[in-house]
Structures are given as C-alpha cells and as structure tokens.
Amino acid sequence: MAHNKLLSTQQVSQHKAPQDCWIVVDNHVWDVTDFLEEHPGGSSIILKYAGRDATKAYSEVHTPGVLKTNLPPTKYMGALDESTIDDDWIKSSPIETPQVILDNEKPPLHTLINSHDFEVVASRKASKKTWAFYSSAATDLITRDANKSCFDRIWFRPRVLRNVRSVDTKTKILGVNSNLPLFVSPAAMAKLIHPDGECAIARACEDKGIMHGVSNNSSYTMEDLRNTAPSANFFFQLYVNRDREKSAALLRQCSANPNVKAIFVTVDAAWPGKREADERVKADETLSVPMAPSQAKNDKKGGGLGRVMAGFIDSGLTWEDLAWVRQHTHLPVCLKGVMSADDAVLAMEAGLDGILLSNHGGRNLDTSPPSIITLLELQKRCPEIFDKMEIYVDSGIRRGTDILKAICLGATAVGMGRSMLFATNYGQEGVEHLIDIMRDELETAMRNNGITSLDEAAPYLVNTADIDHLVPSARQHPYARKVAKGRRPLPISKL
Amino acid sequence: MAHNKLLSTQQVSQHKAPQDCWIVVDNHVWDVTDFLEEHPGGSSIILKYAGRDATKAYSEVHTPGVLKTNLPPTKYMGALDESTIDDDWIKSSPIETPQVILDNEKPPLHTLINSHDFEVVASRKASKKTWAFYSSAATDLITRDANKSCFDRIWFRPRVLRNVRSVDTKTKILGVNSNLPLFVSPAAMAKLIHPDGECAIARACEDKGIMHGVSNNSSYTMEDLRNTAPSANFFFQLYVNRDREKSAALLRQCSANPNVKAIFVTVDAAWPGKREADERVKADETLSVPMAPSQAKNDKKGGGLGRVMAGFIDSGLTWEDLAWVRQHTHLPVCLKGVMSADDAVLAMEAGLDGILLSNHGGRNLDTSPPSIITLLELQKRCPEIFDKMEIYVDSGIRRGTDILKAICLGATAVGMGRSMLFATNYGQEGVEHLIDIMRDELETAMRNNGITSLDEAAPYLVNTADIDHLVPSARQHPYARKVAKGRRPLPISKL
Amino acid sequence: MAHNKLLSTQQVSQHKAPQDCWIVVDNHVWDVTDFLEEHPGGSSIILKYAGRDATKAYSEVHTPGVLKTNLPPTKYMGALDESTIDDDWIKSSPIETPQVILDNEKPPLHTLINSHDFEVVASRKASKKTWAFYSSAATDLITRDANKSCFDRIWFRPRVLRNVRSVDTKTKILGVNSNLPLFVSPAAMAKLIHPDGECAIARACEDKGIMHGVSNNSSYTMEDLRNTAPSANFFFQLYVNRDREKSAALLRQCSANPNVKAIFVTVDAAWPGKREADERVKADETLSVPMAPSQAKNDKKGGGLGRVMAGFIDSGLTWEDLAWVRQHTHLPVCLKGVMSADDAVLAMEAGLDGILLSNHGGRNLDTSPPSIITLLELQKRCPEIFDKMEIYVDSGIRRGTDILKAICLGATAVGMGRSMLFATNYGQEGVEHLIDIMRDELETAMRNNGITSLDEAAPYLVNTADIDHLVPSARQHPYARKVAKGRRPLPISKL
Amino acid sequence: MAHNKLLSTQQVSQHKAPQDCWIVVDNHVWDVTDFLEEHPGGSSIILKYAGRDATKAYSEVHTPGVLKTNLPPTKYMGALDESTIDDDWIKSSPIETPQVILDNEKPPLHTLINSHDFEVVASRKASKKTWAFYSSAATDLITRDANKSCFDRIWFRPRVLRNVRSVDTKTKILGVNSNLPLFVSPAAMAKLIHPDGECAIARACEDKGIMHGVSNNSSYTMEDLRNTAPSANFFFQLYVNRDREKSAALLRQCSANPNVKAIFVTVDAAWPGKREADERVKADETLSVPMAPSQAKNDKKGGGLGRVMAGFIDSGLTWEDLAWVRQHTHLPVCLKGVMSADDAVLAMEAGLDGILLSNHGGRNLDTSPPSIITLLELQKRCPEIFDKMEIYVDSGIRRGTDILKAICLGATAVGMGRSMLFATNYGQEGVEHLIDIMRDELETAMRNNGITSLDEAAPYLVNTADIDHLVPSARQHPYARKVAKGRRPLPISKL
C-alpha cells in the first residue's frame, strides 16, 4: 500500500472506465474496479464518479470507514495532491445528489446464478406484502423447510466412466413434449411482483419449451396467456367453487382453449392454511383476480391474502365430484395435492390421469409430509401405481439435483412454484434465466451421475437411507376408506 | 424517491390520519403509515405527531439513522420547505416529552395471532420475577424443549377429497361437555401477571365452554372463581398437604362446590424441581396464596417461588393415600403427572377415573419423558388402558396441530398451562383470544387432514416414525412394583 | 414512569441502603436496588454511590445509554432538582476514581447455583493460561462435548406415588464410606486457580465426607494434603514414570499414608493429547509440581502445560506392569481410563479392584467414546463384570441427574474433575458449595424418580433408546488380544 | 490495577523488549507483552513502539476503547507522568505512519498448529479469487461438509496398556516407500497462492518422504517439479483430453520421468461441477496452465476457474478407454474418483492397480457420497476388493485421527488436497509444517489407540455405528452395468 504517494487530479481522472475505475473520497484515492459489481447499490452510481471526487455522494450514504473496511489495503492508491485541484476537477464532480433509491435497484440478472439468488433478491426488493404472501407457509414452517431438507438428505450413487458427451433432458408430460422434466407449478397472483405477471411466465415457458401450470388465482386469464404466448402449453389448476356453475364455466373455457392440455384439481387446500407472515401484513383491499371471485380484505384475523382469496373454494369436495369435473372437460384430469399412498391408490382407482404429490409448498397444513417422502411411500406401498398413471412432485425443488432425485424415484416431472414467482421479479427474462439455470444444473447432475437420458434415471442411483425411516410403513388402515367409526383410537400397527 | 422535493408545512399537515400519516424529523418528511403497527413502542406515540414535527420526541428515543434504516426509500417524501414554517406549525408540535413508558405498552391484542406471541409479549412486559417463575423449568430445560419438539417431529398423513364443510370440535371430559378437547391446565398464581388472575381465566373458560383446571396454588379461592364465573366447569388440582386435615378441608369445599367436576391429584412433583431462572430472581416475600399455606421467601438457595411455595406438599404420598382422597370426595379422581406406562397401569388398577400425562411442563425433573412419548408408550405397552379410563396430555401444547396429534394418538383432551398464564397478561379478553386461536387452528388442522369430528381422529392420521425409537419398549421390570432389592444393577433388557 | 418528577438531593440521599438504593447519573435518578446483584462489576462499586451522585464514576466505565438500556423504565425515579444541590451533596460524592479492577471481581459464591456457573466464572476470572489448561481438550473437542450430550440424551422413566420423604445418598467406594456416590476426579495443578489448590479440595472433601482423588501432578504433596485434612480419604492417581524407582517411591509414600485408600493407575494417557487451546497460550516456565519431575516450558509446538508436564510418563506401560504396581503397595489398585468392554474384561481377569471409565475429560484422544457409552457397552457385552469389580465413571458429569443415570446403569460412583477445579476458584468454600449443589441435585433427582436409596437405582429407571445405537455391539475380535497380525483389514462384523 | 500510579518516561522506556513490552497510548501505560502474538496486525508493528509513545500510530488504526477492551485491567500499568516528557522521549517515537498493510500480514508459521489454521489464514490472506477457487464446492456444499462430518461421527475404541513407546508410520504406496500413509492429492494451480506453487509442494514432499500427486492443471510441469525436487516421488493425475494425442504426449512424458510412479485417471469430473463461489468472482483471463490447454475466461455463467479450465476434458471417457491409457504408459494406473462399490468392482475387474475413493472434495456433484461412506460400502459389499488392489481415500481429511480411521477401515493411504494448497500460502516451509503436524497427530492417535504400526490398524478399533445406516446396503442392481433400459423406475430393494 503506497499510502504516502501523492496523486494528481490528472492522474486520477485517467482511471474513469468500468474496467479501471478510481474514485476520490476525502482526498483518499481508491481503485474500486473490482468492487463495482459487488456494490449493493449497483455499479452505475459509482461509475458516475469514475476518475473523480465522490466525497459528497459517498458521505450521504456511507459512514467514513466503509471504504476502508470493505476494500483491501492494496486498493488504496494514495492521497490526492491537493495542489493539483483546479476548476476542471471541481466541475467534473457531478452535482446531482446520488439517488438513495439506487440501493433499491435489483442486481443485474446475470449475477443471479441459482434459484436461491432469486429468493434473496425478492426478499429485499419485492414489496413487504408480496414477500409475505409468496414466502409464507403454515404456522411453524416445519413442512416448508422439510420439503427442501429431505431432498438434501438423499445421496447420489454416481457411476463413472460412462460416455456423457451429450445429454438429453426431453420428456413427455401427459403426452405433451417438454424440453425438461420440469413445469411451472401453479402459484397465485404473479402480478404482485411484476406487471407482466403470468404473461411473463407464459412467454418464458413457451420459449423454453416447458409447461406452465396456471393458477385459478392467476392475475391474468387463460385467454390473456394464450394471446401473449400462442404456442405455449398450459395446464389449469382448478379450485372448485362452491358455486359449481362458475367452475363449470372455467372448465368449458379451458377445454375450448387449445393451449390447455390438462386440468389439475387442487385437493390439498380444503381449508386455507394459517400463514402467519401473510396475516401480519396488511393487504391492499383493491386487489382481485380475474378467474376467481376473490377480493383481498383485512379482517380480525389479519391481512392474509392466501386465506381471504380462498374464500370461494368448496371445502365439501369429494371423490364423487371428480365425475362432475370429467363431465365438463375432455382434457386429462389430474389431482394436485396428494399426500399419502392411500389417496394415490384411490386416485388410481378413480381413473385419474396423474397426481401431483404436493403439500402446497408447506402453506396449508404444517407437518404435512414432505413430497419426496410421499413419493418414497408410493415406491414402498404401491409401486404398481407407477405403471398406471403419471406421478409429479412439487414443494421443495430448488436444484437440478432435486429434479434428478425425484425422477430417479419414479416421478415423471417436477414443478417449481415459489421460485418461478421470485424469478418473475425480472419479468420474462428472469423466468427464462431461471429455467436455463435449472436445465444446466440438471444436465450437470445427470452427467456426473453417469447418465445421458431420463430413461436411465432409476432408484439405484440414489441412496435414501438417511430418510427411509421417515416413510410410513403401515398398510392403509382397513376402515380408513369408510372413515373410522367410534372414538376409540386404534393401536398403531407399526409400534 | 423524490428526495429533492420540497414540501410545505401545509402539505405535510394534511397527512395526519392513521391511514395516511406523515411525520417530520430533522426537516425530512417521511410517510410512516405502514410503519405505525410495527412500531415497537406502539402506534399511538407516533400518531401524536401525525402531520407534524416529531424531531424532539424522536431524538429522545432514537438515534438519527433509525428512520432511514427502517423505512424503505420510497417512504421518504422530501425535505420540509423551511420557508413555510410558521407559528401554527410550531405550536402544532406537542410539547410534552414522549413517555418512554410507552415502550412498555403491550401490543394490541388482535395483533397476537398464536400462542408464541403471548409468550413473547409476556417475556417483554411481565415483571422479571413473573417471567422467571412462569417460564422457568428444571435445570437444563431439556424436557421443557423436548415437550414441544417431539410434537414437531410427528407428521400428519392427511386425507383429501372429504367433505369438511362443517367441523365439530365438541367432546366430553369425564362426562362434562366441552366445546374443545382442551382445558386450562392448573398453573399457580395467575395474579402475578394480571390483577384478575384466575378470575379472568375462569370467566374466559365459562364463555368459551372449556374446563378450567384450578391450581392448589391459585391466587383466588374456588369460591372466588365460582362467584366470578357461576356456570364455569372446574377441576381442582390437589397438592396433598403434610397436614392431611388441611387437604381434607379443601376436598370438602371442592365437593360442595357444584362447579367443581373432578379432583386431580398431582403426583409429578414429589419434590420441587430446580428451576434456576426462578431461583436467580428475588421473590416478593409478601406473596402468599389463599388455598395453600405458602409464603414466598428468599433463602440461601435463591428466590425460587416454585420451590418455596411447595413447602407444604407431602413427599410421602403413596398409592395407598388415594383411598384417603376418595373418602373425602364424591367427585371423580384423576392423577396429574403420570410419566410411564407402568404407573398408568397401576392407576388403572387403582380404579382412577383418568390420568393426565404430564411432566409439569418440564419444571420438576429434567430429562423426564416428553408427554407425547409417554402417550406413545401407553399405545405400545398397554393399549387396553384407553378402554378403561380417560387419558389427558399436557406439557408442550402450542398449536392446534399438537392438540389433534394427541387426540389421534388416544388422548381425550389436552391441557395448556403456561400459554394460558401468558394470555392472562391481557385479562379475560386475552384468554378468550387464545382459546379462539386454538380452536381455529384445531379446526383448520382437522379439515386439512380430512376429518370433521374428533371421533375420526385416529392413529392412521399421524406418522410417528421419527420418534418411535424413543419410546421405551421394555416391559415393566418384574420387581419394579416391590422396589428393586439389592444393589446389583439389572441387565437392560432391550440392549 | 414519573420522569417529569423532580427529586431533591435530600430525597435521593435517603435511599442509600443495599435494600433501597438510588443513584444519580447525569441528573437522572434511578432505583438500582434490584440491579445491584446483577452488576457485572459487583454490587460494592455501586453501593459506594448509594443515595449519591455517581456520574463521574459511571462515565469512566460506561457509555451514557447503558443504564437506560439495562433498567426497566419503572426504575427511573425522576430528574434531580438541581436547585437542591448544596455543598453536602457535592461532598458526599466520593472522589476516588472507581477501580476498574472491580470488573474483575468474582460474583458472590451464593449466587452460583450449579456447576455451569463455576465454569462461567472461571472462564472470566481465571488467568488466560489457567482457563486454557483447565478447559481445553483434544483437537476438535468432539469427545469433550459428547461426554455431556450423551448424558442429556438419556431419559428418565420416573415412578410416582412412592414415599420419598427421606432420601439417603450414602454408599461405599472400595469399602470406604462416602456420603455421596461422587468423588473428586484427579486433576492437575489446582494451585493455578487458587493458592490453596488441592488443600482446599481436600478440606472440602473431608468436611463433606467424599473421597478426593489426588493427581500425580497435584500442586501439593500427599503429605501436605493429609496434614491439612487429617481425616480425609484420598485415592492417588499414578502416572507411571519411565524411571520406575520414582513411581515406586510414590507408591511407598502413599501406602504409608493412612488416608490414602487406593491407587488409580492412569491408562488413558499413554501419550499426551493435543489440546490446542492450551498450546496457544504461553506457559509460565517457572511452574513445576512436587510429585512429578515436571517443569513447564514453551517449545515449538506451543505452550501446552498438559503435554509438557506429561513428559515423564512411561508410554511403554503394559498389563504386565500392573504386577509391579501390586508389589509396591498393599492398597487396592484400580485403572483410570478404560474405554472399551474388551479392556474392562482384561482388567477383571487381571484381578484389579475397580475401573474408572474415563476418556480423560476428552483431553487425550478426540472421538474416543463418551464414558457413559462405555458403561452401556459393559452392560451389553460383559454384564457379569458388575459382580466382580466396582465400576466408576467420569468425564461429562455436570448434574445430579447425570450422577443418578450412571448409578442406574451400574456405576458405583462417579467423579468430577474440571468442575471441582473451577470451584476451587473460591477455595475450600467453593468446593463445598459445589458438593452441596451436587448433593441437592442428586437428592431431587432421586425423589422425583421415586427412589430413596441408591440401592433402588436400577436400569429400569432410565431410557437409553436415543443412544443405544451408538453402543458397539460387536464381540471383541478374536485376535484383538494378541494384536492383529498382517495388514489386511478384517471385515466389520456388524455391517 | 494501579491506575493512579504515575510512571516516568524513563521507567516506561526500559520495557522495550518483546518479552517485556510496554507502550503508551494517550498517556496511559499498558503492558502489551502477552498481547504481541495475538495482535491481528502482527507483533512487529507494536514492537516498533516498545517502551515508547504509540498514540499516533494507534489512533490511525484503532478507536480509543480497543486497548481497554482487549487487555485485562492488570495490564494497565499507570499514567504517564507528563512532567517527565523530554526531547529524548519525543524523538524516540518513530515518525513513520504505521503501514496499514501490516494488517494483511500472515501470522508467523509456528503459530499455525493444525490444518484448520491454514484454512483460516488463507481465507483472510489469499486473494479473493484464489480463496473462491480453492474453497468452493458444488452448489449447496452438502458433500463438502459431510466429507468432514462423517469422519467426526466415527468413534475410536481405544485399547490401553500397550507399549507405545515407539511408533512407526511408514508404509508403501504401489510399492513406493512413504513415511506416512498420506499423500498430497492433486489440486490445480498452486501458484495462485504462492509463486513457488507446486514446486514448494514437491520439495516439501521430497523432504518429508511422502508422495506428491500432481494435477493435470498444475502451474508447473512435471519436468519443473522433477528439477526442483529430484528425489521426490510423484503420481500424475490425468484428465483425458478430447484430443487424445495431447493426453498421449503427457503420458509419454510422465512415463519417461523416473520420479513419476503412477498415473491416476480422474473419473469423478466427467462434467465440471457448479462451484458458485468460484463463479461469482471474476477470473484473471491471462491465467493458463502449462500441461493443459486451458485458459481462464469470464463468460455469462460467471468467472468459474474450475469450470472454464476443465473445458478440454473428454466427457466421453469410458471403461474401454483405460486400455488406451495402458498402451501409453508402463506405470501403474489407478482411478481417482470412484464413488460406489459397483464401480470399485468394475475397476478391480478391469485390472487397475488402485482406486482413490474421492468426490473431488465435494466440488463436482453435490450430495455425492462422502468418501468414508464409500469406503464402508466397500467393506460391506465387496470386502474381497481389499485383497486385490490398493484403496485410497481423499475428501475431508483434516486430522491425524481421520487418517487413522481410514486406515483402520482398509485404506492404504489418504490424500489431502485443499489443506495442502492452503499450506502452500507459506511456501515449502508451510507444506512441511503441515505434514509435520499431520504426522504428529497421526502418531498421537495411534499411540492413544494402543497401536504402534499401521499393520495393527484394523476395523475393531473404530465404531462406525453412528453412520452405518447411511451405507448403501442394496446389492448392485442386476442391470446397472448395461445401463437400465426403459423408463419404468425399479422398486427400491431396501425399502
């Protein structure tokens, strides 16, 4: 560190490019080139002062020690030779006050390199209410966190010395081509984080060739989405309305929309979960969504968007009602939200086309089982089901390795919901970037496991020993289907 | 952020309502509307300065950077145009010093949305001694914490597509109707946190239709409680006095009180536990309780209220003494504090009406078993007991999901002690609010598991695989009832 | 908070007693009565200013906000009426500067209520080197921490309704009466923390009627200890010297000392462990111990007292050498530091009188097994050993519940080493206080488990299910005694 | 604390030696002797002011409270008697400004006493990019951390009373003598942390008599290394180039180099892992390595050195290609990166000379199995392999106890990669110091387990019960070798 060196204003002003940027603060000269991209407030605000005096702007935002603390001593270039200060120098310093709002700028998209990054940015840049609504989950967040941690506890058993030069991630979902075994899981109100909302997602899915699961509580209608992304493939997530005619109308619209390939009836949200972060933040009561007769409001329980917007959903839906759904659509019908092998078998017996193992991202019933545990339960208790219908998984997918684990264990494809909303923060480009990341991570995971197509993904590639003991082993209770009569608790068979 | 904008005092003073509130600090104008409810010191102190200059009040409590740090830049409205300051403006600024005591105000009751919130508020607002006495538990707090975490490690196995439109949480406890499978567990000296003490609890239980378990160390007598809540149902928790006549008198009074429905004899506190937080804070030696001959004091061990107030309890109580209890009351007699299947069987053989599985909230013997583990032990080792007597559980219940898990595993009802004391912080209204919260959480959990009455709650709905290995599997040792003779340790059968 | 109230100097000066103490800081009057005992620098420094102005003394040590931050608003009594300041007031304020060294004062002994407290005080008040030497353990501290956590993972199975009015903790150790199943485990150089060193321990053990295990590296000789505590019972911990004659001399001295009841030959320290905290602090090279030819020094590995002082120990000691020990003493001979059932059986076959299961407090070999796991290994693999010799346990005992767990699982008595050193910080009185605490905790644990004598302590009272899987189940390998020949690793039988 | 004592400048100036060093700051005299070595900026900067006034230098770097906060009150010697200040005193205070860069000095090598210390120093002193490249691992770092934690969960079963006076750590690796069962694992670009790079490592290995595994991406060529360390033993880690002729040339060079004893073909990096810390820091694009046609660059994914430099590696390598390798060298050929028993068996069948169980330090595929788990898998599923070929382990070795555990479980030797790079921070001397530390730790572990040669290291000395459940128990899937056909997932045999 040449801290005794005196530098003239002429010398300093030569370093004014992004790749060679010095600034002066309190007559100390610093090389901030390497720091530009790390600056929490973005690089542009610094570049305004490249080769110039930034004291005034700096002082409005930072305390004097920040530079010294954050830069290594090697970046200290010396002291400004004050005798060289002249009019040019003084004029060169921009007079506009730095805009503090810059601190609020999102980091450049290319600096986000995984799904966690999108979540971090959203936590800082989305409105408080949007963040609360998107990120919240039921009560103590146990299921939300276990969704991810159970994936992390599955080990690979990678095979080496296999030719993995080219890798193919293509698959089919309900007969529809998909470039990845990944779809966007239905998630409500994408417009809260970006004006383009679900339109951005639809266009990204169209470009990247994956399926977009559209929420009943989408900020845009299916027609809007078809218009914006005319060759996209959708499935529609239905919340059955207590007023059945309204749901029937929606089913008819979807069936008439050639881009809609399937109906997913939601069954994991018979009653709205208690999402406390969502309740604690006041909602904008002007908010409504076009395909559901819902209107935000704040009541004595709080401002929970998730709870209030769900007001129209019929909590009386039963297996019998699925016949009614079939009557109103020719499309494949799947269930979203199966959480037990017992109900998976019932779904198979009911002739459904697929089931999405999901706990609603942990948003509805805390300590409901992580989806990957339910997938293992199917492998253990009803493996024949994989021959009869497609099985999907969502809740907790954050990495390409997570996708591959689910596929190895029998899933046809997996969905990502929250992460896609967080990516929508950057509009269509953000969602595309996230899909690219997931593809890259999946391909890397496949190659490093020694496989090149999804057909090769099989259970022998994963070691679930660390979570196998969590998988329920008991057979379905004999009386379970008719609902247990009598108060007397039954002995736990597995004890 | 329009921070260059100049705002006149006239403009500022128009934003003076709770739903549109600006304040001026150091000539900066901020919109604090959204911040009102978050303000740790309560919103009222801010509202005093709505549309006005708050600099003086602000500076007495906060350092200059607090506002900038806590508010997003979008809430900065601009600078105050100092040329517009006039006499009206100056006079409008209240001259009274802000009352620092406001920091001590409790948050509004409706902002508390779960049992944890009541605990957090009590930790901050109750006196140091009250907090220490209520929250403390034996030595290293292992049992206290495991009481809760063992519930968290039980997973649901929710069933879908069942009609859950209407849900019924009613049940009977010893033949007495209860709107919930929940009662207030006996806990001492509620007056420490609110002058109404147990009277507030009794009235809340009366209104909400649940049973109130009254502590032998209650701040009010059974007669007081009956007078304040004439249609409430109570059970009385008895600590048997070394001077048996005193206990006999209490039993006679309870038996003559038509609101008292049962006697719970405490057996998990043969000796006072070592509650270190309680010992470390000096007690008010004027404190005494009416139904027990107890008087607080500070001695060389410390100021432990729990220890000192328990001085009258007979540590020589045995199974034989239960006959003596029966002689002094016609009421059902239950045991509070059974911690093993062995003693549960003895209680069944002794003809008791019920047992409350409890470890005294972890307050007496650290590493005594979590109550839910004891419930599983009963299911495993003596399932026939559920046909013979009612089983209750307390210690660790914080959520509606916890209640449902205990019911699924065979409990008739569960108790909450500490949480109810924390709710008493807000008087009767607080306790009612907490009961409402618990009911709402329980109903939500029932619905999202696919059941609508407690009769349907059965073991097949829960997965205890993560804690099953903790359940003792050994049969009761053959000599256990006569007390092992001889020093030689016996081989551990399960190893 | 009556913060607008003006208080005269006369009013303030009336509150000058420990039980009613006000002080003035910056003209604010605070009631610090309740705070006296909490003051980290001790109460005496505050009491100097009781009823007076403490501004000057306060400011030298604290920043202005400390009082406001640490005291509740209710302790603010008002502002000092400056018009009442007179000469008496000014003179009443002591002029001596507060002694910063007071921050170094130990808290009063009676405020320490468990063994952890003694450790905390030692960590703050002992010299850096003493703390490093006493508290350090081998490399990553895994064994040190597991010693305690394995106790914490054992649950009790408490029995209720047993007469526990009087409880008896007496037992015999090698035929010697002991008031508790507890002894002081040998630990080196107690003088580092208090000038009385082992003399303080010996006198405390004499008064409390428990046995004192004296380290070969004691700061005082056995004769010193016998002189200071003429009716104490000792056992002597022998490190066998490479120069056997020196050890023989020690054995002869011990055998001639009627207070010495047994010899414990240390076998868990064949080579000094790597205690990094100890190495990192420079040692005082003038330090030596009388019964071992050891002298502290700092070398290129660091300043490790434990390592350097162990230089004389013979790392070539074998089972054959025990015969040599027997030749030089008529006293019972035990082994300290057995860590496997295999060696326990060898010790039994060698005819030793007892074994102390110990890993040297985790100080010698990191990831050596926690002692309580070794005790379970004995129960599992060689239960007959409990009929043949006495088994002791140390390493990790911090609570009365720990003592009871070890006794239930077959130990005759347990030792505490580090905690006793930390208690020696307060001299004899400190050690006595700690022994009293341990007795009280043990009695409470016995009573709350439903037993009144140690004869009743048996395995059925504990549930070790959470750690049973850690207990080695393999039988001793057939070749283990002759030392495995050949490099080829043997299959792990238990896999 | 004698803080009222006045000290003359003459008195102060006598304490000017490293072993007796006082300094004056703001006229307070402090004894900083004990603090010298702890000073984060190194002792030399303080010693400049020994016995003199350091106020000016101190103030440039520290706030006034630092000394008071960091030194115990006993180190305060008194106030400077200002009346004794004379010209000599004033002149004695050096006038040069303290060099802030001193904060960047590495601590003296002898103060580093374990492998963690080297990592800590590197994290602070290496360039940001070097630290990111060396320390990073794949995505969520799960495998990187489990590599270490799985070692920590293996317990020893130490044996006592065995003669461990002399201990021998010598062994043979592929017939080559090694003083330790330890080698330097291949790791790329050591020059990033020290100009001597791999030359420093080679010379250290030569001096200490262990083998140096040289990375294909070494900063120096094999010839450079042979020249600098003419009697060192190397093995060469080959990344097979898509342009086979380039690899063939390297193989020929290695085969002609008498110091190269084996070729290790890397198979755990078919595709570069996603090392996010590495991607996030911009790379110096002028960087290249001599033996690989690689050039650093920054692209849209980031600046990942690991990814970009791996661009030449052939991801199409298969078992068949090993024959091609054999054709170009007479040296023993081993595989680096086997992660399953299945591939270990294939390697054995392919006639390889050894395999290095490795997951590339967790750098390539997150949740690939910890190497020690793979070693246990071999013991469980194909124990015969230990008779047929040498097995090595790397990834996670940080302690001598880790080395011994791997040897007990059948490994011939273990490798350390990252730690050796961190030690290279200090050049050859640093690497030697680390090797000495590892030898000392290994010898201590052997002795305290009761063994004196590696031949005695056998499974009975370790208890793997805490991780045994993680070891895959399923037999290799019947179709695994021909690669599973068909999409249908296979039932998981072990469930």
Task: Give a written overview of the molecule.
The structure is a homotetramer of 495-residue chains. Chain A is an alpha/beta fold. Chain A folds into two domains: 6-104, Roll (Flavocytochrome B2, Chain A, domain 1); 109-475, Alpha-Beta Barrel (TIM Barrel). Chain A has helices at residues 9-13, 43-47, 55-61, 65-70, 87-92, 115-125, 128-135, 142-152, 197-208, 222-228, 244-256, 276-280, 305-309, 321-327, 341-349, 371-381, 385-388, 400-408, 418-424, 427-449, and strands at 6-7, 16-17, 20-25, 28-31, 52-53, 76-80, 155-156, 171-173, 176-178, 182-184, 211-214, 234-238, 260-266, 288-289, 294-295, 333-338, 354-357, 390-393, 413-416, 462-463. The first copy, chain A, has an eight-stranded parallel β-barrel, surrounded by six helices. In chain A, strands 1, 2, 3, 4, 5 and 6 form a six-stranded mixed β-sheet that branches. In chain A, α18 (400-408) packs across α20. Chains in contact: A-B, A-D, B-C, C-D. At the A-B interface, α12, β16 and α15 of A face β7, α16 and α20 of B. Chains A, B, C, D: InterPro entries: Aldolase_TIM, Cyt_B5-like_heme/steroid-bd, Cyt_B5-like_heme/steroid_sf, Cyt_B5_heme-BS, FMN-dep_DH, FMN_HAD, L-MDH/L-LDH_FMN-bd. Chains A, B, C, D: Belongs to the cytochrome b5 family. In the N-terminal section; belongs to the cytochrome b5 family. Chains A, B, C, D: Residues 4-81 form the Cytochrome b5 heme-binding domain.
